[in-house]
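Appendix B. One record, verbatim.
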Amino acid sequence: MVRGCPAGRRRDHVGDHKLCARSCEAARRRDSLSDVTNVDEPSGDDRLPPPWLIVVGIVGALALVFLLGAGVGQEWGAEQWGPVAAWVAGAATLAAVVVALRQAILAQREARRGHLARLVDHEVTRRRECIEALANLWAAITGMQMDFAAWTGKLQTQATDSIPEEIRRFSWEWQNRIEGPLFVALLVLRGTDLYDAVGEVNDKINEIKTDGLEPIRQAAKDRRRPDKAGIDGITSMWENVIDRRDAHLTLARQHFNLTRKDVESYVLENQVR
């Protein structure tokens, strides 16, 4: 119960407290690769000078203290110390050099983070293109399932004179619906972990177009219906292609994950390599 709140608003305050707690917890969690994605916000390391600059500053300070001590001990005068203007000019020059080095280091870090962020965006785009190519291929293949079943049924029931035309019609539809997405998938997925899997589908489809259709074409030339062995053979080849869908989906989930953390980890790993 939240004290000091009207009864009608207690539930709202409880919800606000829960939301605040979740927000604080999320704020405490460091985003993956925040140095890469949050290029506008300097990290803790960027607020500190590099170690070598700290060492140089300490050494310079010690040398200056030693010089001052030696000068005071030896009772140096204006001739040894030199004019005040020279000291002021030297200090200003040193400060300018330090500031310039600091800005150059920050600019280099910003450029590196920006480069990594662009690589992450490029990898996300590449994965989306691969997913789209794979999805279009399987949409075309599964979209032919009912047509394939109807086609094999017609081959066993239609008149023998119409079988050659039925074969040409189905081959034309096959070329227009499957060959295009298959060609794109082979090009887009080249070099990825799914290329070999899509290549196997391509081999099986070529097997259907050659070994599977050959007995059916021969039956058409002989002016007879294809026998059961020929129909069962091409159907088995087709089912072999369809059965690969789930394996492709598993590979896509494994290698084309679009979560930011996974993509950033992949980019950094390949940067190290």
